[in-house]
Design brief:
Largest sheet: 9 strands, mixed
Oligomer: single chain
CATH architecture of the largest domain: Alpha-Beta Barrel
Number of strands: 49
Structural class: alpha+beta
């Protein structure tokens, strides 16, 4: 048999010259046993590689060399997953900033979750250059990834392998090679959709007669205030009028970047125009229509461009255009344009329709309509499309309900106007989210487990409530409504934000508020000019200092609790105090940090002071303490607080946990709950909240899992690579595991981190990058509707790799079936039980006899847990052999 050598070729620059390849044979293994404080590794591992997890991660893994007559490879097997999966690394020569590379990987992933190869710093602060997903599907795969080392990272660099599920991972080869910059540039260009040469307007919408369209969005900080005019503007159509609101244009591309272009529009009123988040130009107040022009040079490497229009008071906007050179005269992109809007309803402003409403979308055509037809395409989350033709009318309605077998989820409505077989408009689209009315619509749900972080923005809050969210944590989102530094910037001078807090409550969202951020005067014990001059991160560090006089903190807590006793019923003391609580402000505004044990003691004193103060205001108010996390330092933190007696001065214990792995079975989320409870028996006797975290995204600095553009196709000028099912399922599995593990409330972080389609979001949940509903939101709706009012009665592996969580309540049981991602296809039959039904990730019905592979689904019946479990075991067929 031919022996296949497993090689990792690393080409790197040294003194300006390419060095010889560094070759690693993965089959040149050495025996290794490493037992750490939490986890372990045993077996064989490639020379030069080492396990980098046993001291901080409870995972158990092993390795061995395998030659199966097909491939010769290193096989790593994970038998237990800790709060994170195991990771392995070896140091590599430094990647050269600005150099383009091609990574070729040949692997087979039979884990219950994903895997990643990561180029990053070996030591703190663990900066990441690039990471690449190696998804599970059980078959051999070989792929190429092209990238640029876009920044300098000091210190040693390593290649890390992260495994994010239980099962086996096989690696044949990986090769990293330098490539010419032109090769990477060609890849980037191929992913773009540039307008045709000679286009007269690079913006598809020159007017907004029905309001902002797909791709246009509002800033997140507050409820957008806008209306449509009663009369026509310079474009010949109705126009948008903003009031103290920021509108972001649709992202666009140009035909020839690196040359001068002009963004122009007509305005009336006063405001500012910005190129993305950078250069700006004031719009002097004008009571008559005035043409504004903004010159810019598009960077050739940018995948899109956008502008921000900021209203100072009232600002009317119309007749938009982007064109080459200095041309600022108004010209639309085509003879006709199509605009969409949902009919008036309680959630139209959130782009949501309940399934009891007609599936209708209104449209308006600008330009000359006679003798033309409207070519319509409806697409859903399942990749299906249905096309039809309508006689064109100036104003009309499109019925997008063309998939009666799967009526829920999201639907993209596309349309183009044709005359004599020729397209006379760009392709326009609109995405509608269609979900059932939630169980707790228009009422409070204090026992609900579903929470999130969100700003007081009316369309966003309505969308979240419609998806089954019932709690909001005020922290980063809403810090200026509740944090001490914002409420009492000067001692005794309060600035309350009652209207914003009432907006949550008017949408029947319950609040859990974080008491944190020390004002500068309380941090220093008085006015210090050098501290007043601080800004940015330096100021933030001052605001995380323990107050000089604890009585000032107690007064803040008492004042807030008394004022909002009927608005806020739960309070968290501080945020991530294990890293974000500092000792004092020294000379020049420098901040001294606590040693770990002293920090825990200081936090305990603050938690106790807050607890006592809140109890005096109202004994029924609840205090959340500990604020730990599932990493080793967080476990140590919980243990130390327990020793100090923190359980005596709180009603609830909380912690933070982020994941990007497919949860199911003995996963990281379940392990995180066990770790906290084992470390702190006192806390384990309290209800447990997960007050910050999520399962489907990371920061863009760590290569977030997607652009969060959802179903958009025409509204973005690049080819989306988002896997909407993956993002939705990751979040859903995370929630199921948390709730089944006994977490009483899960606060996803966050629904406030969007900044427009042009920018990839950090840690976004349920919403898209433009702030409108994402497919995640539809999946959350399906989960919340089934689990609301139920408790977990059983967690079992009903067949190898298939986990079943049964929730029961109100005379009905729901089984959430969570398969490992590498599980082979298998048949199932819906049990013959009263009220039995099966549904998929988005809540759409499944047929009586269905072949399922590896995506979460639901089985329900009007029974207790035991009969449903028995029927599931009985009705599962044998898996198909690979």
């Amino acid at each position: 048999m031919k022996r296949i050598t497993c090689i990792l070729a690393l080409l790197f620059a040294f003194s300006g010259m390419a060095a010889e390849p560094l070759r690693i044979d993965f089959t040149r293994v050495r025996p290794l046993v490493e037992k750490g404080k939490l986890g372990s590794f045993s077996g064989e591992l490639t020379e030069g590689w080492r396990p980098d997890y046993p001291d901080w991660n409870g995972s158990i893994a092993s390795g061995r060399e395998v030659d199966d007559n097909t491939e010769h490879f290193l096989q790593l097997e994970v038998t237990r997953l800790g709060s994170m999966g195991p990771q392995f690394y070896r140091e590599i020569p430094r990647l050269t900033p600005g150099q383009a590379y091609r990574l070729t990987v040949h692997w087979r992933n039979r884990l219950g979750g994903g895997a990643e190869l990561v180029f990053r710093q070996v030591g703190a602060p663990y900066g990441t250059l690039r990471r690449f997903d190696l998804p599970p599907d059980g078959s051999w795969r070989k792929e190429e990834f092209r990238f640029e080392a876009d920044r300098e990272l000091p210190g040693a660099q390593g290649l890390f392998l992260l495994l994010k599920g239980v099962g086996k991972f096989d690696l044949v080869s990986a090769e990293l090679a330098e490539i010419p910059p032109e090769e990477l540039a060609a890849d980037r260009e191929a992913a773009l959709r540039r307008p045709a040469a000679g286009a007269v307007n690079f913006l598809p919408h020159s007017s907004l007669p029905l309001g902002p369209q797909a791709g246009w969005s509002f800033r997140r900080e507050k409820t957008p205030q806008w209306r449509l005019s009663a009369e026509n503007g310079p474009s010949g159509e109705r126009y948008v009028i903003l009031t103290d609101t920021v509108l972001l244009t649709v992202p666009f591309q140009v035909w020839e970047p690196d040359k001068k272009h002009t963004f122009s529009f007509s305005y009336r009123g006063k405001g500012i125009v910005r190129e993305a988040w950078a250069n700006f130009k004031e719009l002097p107040e004008s009571r008559e229509w005035k043409r504004a022009a903004f010159s810019f040079v598009p960077h050739p490497a940018a995948r899109s461009y956008a502008f921000r229009l900021e209203a100072d008071g009232e600002l009317s906007l119309d007749a938009f255009r982007v064109a080459p050179g200095d041309d600022a005269e108004f010209r639309p992109a085509a003879p006709c344009e199509i605009s969409f809007a949902l009919p008036d309803s309680e959630l139209a402003a959130s782009r949501i329709q309940f399934d009891t409403e007609p599936s209708r979308l209104a449209y308006h055509i600008s330009g000359n309509v006679p003798d033309s037809e409207l070519a319509v395409t409806i697409a859903d989350l399942y990749g299906r499309e249905k096309c039809f033709i309508l006689p064109a009318a100036k104003d009309g309605v499109i019925d997008y309900g063309v998939f009666p077998d799967r009526p829920l989820g999201q639907f993209r409505v596309e349309a183009v106007l044709r005359r004599d077989g020729k397209e006379i408009s760009p392709h326009f689209e609109f995405v509608v989210t269609r979900i059932p009315r939630p169980v707790c619509w228009n009422r409070d749900a204090p026992e609900s487990p579903f929470g999130i972080h969100a700003i007081a923005n009316e369309p966003v809050l309505k969308a979240l409530k419609a998806a089954g969210v019932n709690h909001v944590r005020l922290h980063d989102a809403g810090a200026d409504y509740i944090a001490w530094a914002y409420l009492e910037p000067e001692k005794g001078r309060w600035r309350f934000r009652d209207a914003e807090l009432q907006l949550y409550r008017s949408n029947r969202l319950l609040l859990t508020a974080t008491l944190f951020l020390t004002p500068e005067w309380a941090a220093t014990g008085g006015d210090r000019p050098e501290v007043r001059r601080l800004s940015g991160y330096s100021l933030h560090r001052v605001r995380t200092v323990v107050p000089a006089d604890l009585k000032d903190f107690t007064n803040y807590v008492s004042t807030v609790a008394a004022r909002y006793r009927n608005v806020i019923r739960e309070y968290i003391v501080w945020n991530e105090p294990w890293s974000n609580l500092r000792q004092k402000v020294e000379a020049g505004g420098r901040v001294a940090d606590f040693e770990f044990d002293a920090r825990a003691a200081a936090y305990f004193r603050m938690q106790k002071a807050a607890y006592d103060a809140i109890r005096q205001v109202d004994p029924a108010l609840r205090v959340v303490g500990y604020n730990a996390n599932a990493a080793p330092h967080g476990i140590r933190w919980a243990r130390e607080l327990d020793r100090l007696g923190a359980y005596r001065c709180c009603d609830i214990a909380d912690y933070h946990y982020y994941s990007d792995s497919y949860c199911g079975g003995d996963d990281g989320a379940a392990s995180s709950v066990r770790s906290i409870r084992a470390a702190a028996p006192g806390a384990a006797r309290k209800p447990l909240y997960m007050t910050e975290g999520q399962g489907a995204n990371k920061s863009t600095a760590n290569e977030g899992l997607g652009d969060f553009t959802g179903l958009y196709r025409n509204a973005i000028p690049w080819r989306s690579r988002d896997d909407n099912w993956m993002l939705a399922e990751l979040q859903t599995r995370f929630l199921v595991s948390m709730i089944a593990s006994g977490v009483k409330k899960v606060f996803l972080y966050s629904a406030h981190t969007y900044e427009g389609l042009q920018k990839r979001p950090d840690f976004l949940a349920l919403l898209g990058a433009d702030g409108w509903p994402h497919p995640q939101l539809a999946a959350h709706s399906a989960l919340a509707r089934r689990l609301e009012g139920k408790s977990c009665r059983s967690r079992q592996e009903v067949r190898p790799g298939l986990y079943c969580y049964v929730f029961t309540g109100g005379g009905r049981s729901v089984a959430v079936l969570v398969p490992e991602k590498s599980l082979p296809e298998y048949p199932f039959a819906v049990p013959r039980l009263p009220g039995a039904a099966a549904s998929d990730l988005f809540g759409n019905p499944l047929a009586d006899e269905v072949r399922r592979r590896n995506v979460l689904y639901y089985l329900e019946a009007d029974t207790d847990a035991a009969p449903l479990l028995q029927a599931i075991r009985r009705n599962l067929g044998a898996p198909r052999q690979r």
